[in-house]
Design goal:
By secondary structure, the chain is of the alpha+beta class. It has four helices and eleven strands, in the order H-H-E-H-E-E-H-E-E-E-E-E-E-E-E. One of its GO terms (molecular function) is ferrous iron binding.
């Protein structure tokens, strides 16, 4: 019969513990094994199919209560994902997201109650200037989450790097993160400013936020 301590140890998830440790030490985490190759392939097929159906719209600045479109700031097109109407690939995606949320709430008491995710496509030549993932009239976003769905032959010269700006001992540091297919990046929404560098080849991802209240 397990003791309570043994049960807690058995319940530990090494991947999620690595994410938590990264967030505590550097406010962001880069994970290359959150999803497997088949899951990424299915999600890539899903985003391309929905793009072919012309379901995407131009991304805006601000939240849904105060949206403006500004090509000089961001150039991606997006499609919000409604968890009530999802395909098998998206079901697998949300199963893992919900499992992560449950683990974070149970172990770190983050109080994450809501989430929102969308597909994002950056056409060649587009970008997203430096910004913070919170709004003046809405500060519920706790963690930002991005999963890259680029083609398997994606190369660094294709552009579209994510740059996260951190502060180390009072000095600003730029952390450049390449959007390799399957890579997941999680970071603190209210603290870390970031940007997407100009894209030389179409850039695909799922982006979202884990929210409180």
């Amino acid at each position: 019969m397990h003791t309570l301590f043994e049960a807690l140890v058995d319940a530990e998830n090494p991947l999620y513990e690595r994410i938590i440790d990264n967030l505590l030490t550097q406010q962001y985490s880069i994970i290359d094994d959150f999803f497997d190759a088949q899951e990424i392939l299915e999600l890539r097929n899903s985003i391309r199919l929905k793009h072919e159906e012309d379901a995407f719209k131009k991304a805006a600045i601000g939240n849904r209560l105060n949206e403006t479109i500004a090509k000089s700031i961001r150039g991606d097109v997006i499609l919000w994902i409604d968890e009530q109407f999802i395909n098998p690939a998206e079901t697998l995606f949300f199963n893992k997201i919900n499992e992560l949320i449950s683990y974070l709430n149970r172990t770190c008491f983050l109080g994450i109650l809501h989430k929102e995710f969308h597909y994002a496509i950056y056409p060649k030549g587009t970008f997203y200037k430096r910004h913070l993932d919170t709004f003046q009239n809405d500060d519920r976003r706790k963690l930002s989450f991005v999963c890259y769905l680029n083609d398997e032959d994606w190369q660094p010269e294709n552009g579209g790097e994510l740059v996260i700006y951190t502060n180390e001992n009072g000095v600003e540091v730029e952390k450049v993160i390449y959007p390799f297919p399957g890579r997941v990046v999680i970071f603190e929404s209210q603290i870390l400013e970031h940007e997407v560098k100009p894209v030389n080849t179409e850039r695909l991802s799922i982006t979202g936020w884990l929210k409180t209240r």
